[in-house]
Amino acid sequence: MERSVIVLGAGMVGVSVAVHLRRHGYQVALVDHQRPGLGASFGNGGLIQTEAVLPTAFPRELAQLRRIARNRSVDVAYHAMALPNLAGPLLRYWWNSHPSRYQALARAHAALIATAGREHTALAAAAGATALLRPIGWMRVFGHAETFEAAVTQANLARREFGVPFTILDGAGIAVAEPHLKVRRLGGLHWTGAFSVADPHALTHAYASLFAREGGHFALGDAATLRRDGSGWSVASSDGPLQAAEVVVALGAAAGQVTRRLGYAPPLFGKRGYHMHYALLGNATLNRPVVDMESGFLLAPMRAGIRLTTGAEFARPGAPPTPVQLARAEPIARGLLPLAERLDAAPWMGVRPCTPDMLPVIGRLPGQEGAWCAFGHAHQGFTLGPSTGRLLAEMMMGEKPLVNPQPYSPGRFG
Question: In terms of DSSP H, where are the helices of 58-199?
């Protein structure tokens, strides 16, 4: 069982971990209850956000908190029955978002984000998927001067501190860049260094295919069956029991269900999101992803149509879908872009795995020899998958790591 590993979870993070471990000489079994890339990696905005050096902080302005509390917005919604269990993690999230603590956390987040573009580029080249990485960036558009000016200030900070490229657009510039927007906006920010992916599932599938070509093994299985097997680990799969010396938990929002049984209970919480695809009327086009900052939704050109994605919904694990944010966003989106009919039979829903300090959990699982963590990437799992895979593989091999892994240590949560 020397240098063998089971990777639990086949989203962008788990697939990337599996690829990098295979390339480091491990015998790797990648296990999920469904085919690769069908979880949260499937329903994102398709953005590799090389500009996302500043993680999303908890709102601290009273007006913002009052707006969210009314539970009628597009960007945030919640189930009242979910709040008691979320109170602890959300309070810690609010506490960590204070400027005195946020700055250090942002620098740790930025260190990993800074590697995302080149790590995706390298993996996509090996997978023959470079064409999926569109170097067109994405835009945020604003209708109010106050929010636009605040965003420009933050963008200038990101450029000054971390070298993030962007351009500022006025209303006329937005009209030139996106001539079929129906509503004139005051101004916009175009993040020029980011990649847009027209089919996020196809990119994850390409990386999974690379893993298979290089000798990796994928099996359908149940992570809940993970157990100690002598000095190693085993899990039940469609191919029978799989055994390995080490295991990586890369299960996204479901990771805690496995780690708690191993004595490790990080304060992980989920943000649910939805998407729907639409046709466009006539000869209308959308050239790049656009976030309407006045409403809090994303419109992105995808192979499947124009994808409308929502913000964050807080609900109990396993609660039935309640796509109220999509219902609120759709009429606003139709006023912004000439959308035609819906193209999906039902809205898609996924869960983003979040931590109270806005940093992922990467490293040794406390108290369990041969067990490792790779989860908690919040909105950036699709962006940070290849970087996480390389970093964890280097840590497991005892090599010099891609970045300092200490800020992401599982041990920070006890």
Answer: 62-69, 83-96, 99-113, 116-127, 145-162, 171-177
pLDDT tens for each residue of the chain, 414 residues long: 469 999 999 999 999 999 999 999 999 999 999 999 999 999 999 999 999 999 999 998 899 899 999 999 999 999 999 999 999 999 999 999 999 999 999 999 999 999 999 999 999 999 999 999 999 999 999 999 999 999 999 999 999 999 999 999 999 999 999 999 999 999 999 999 999 999 999 999 999 999 999 999 999 999 999 999 988 999 999 999 999 999 999 999 999 999 999 999 999 999 999 999 999 999 999 999 999 998 889 999 999 999 999 999 999 999 999 999 999 999 999 999 999 999 999 999 999 999 999 999 999 999 999 999 999 999 999 999 999 999 999 999 999 999 999 999 999 997
CB atoms within 10 A of CB 119: 23
For the chain, domains (ranges, CATH) are 1-57+97-131+197-268+355-414 (3.50.50.60)
Question: Of 169, 194, 174, 192, nearest to 184 (Cα)?
Answer: 174
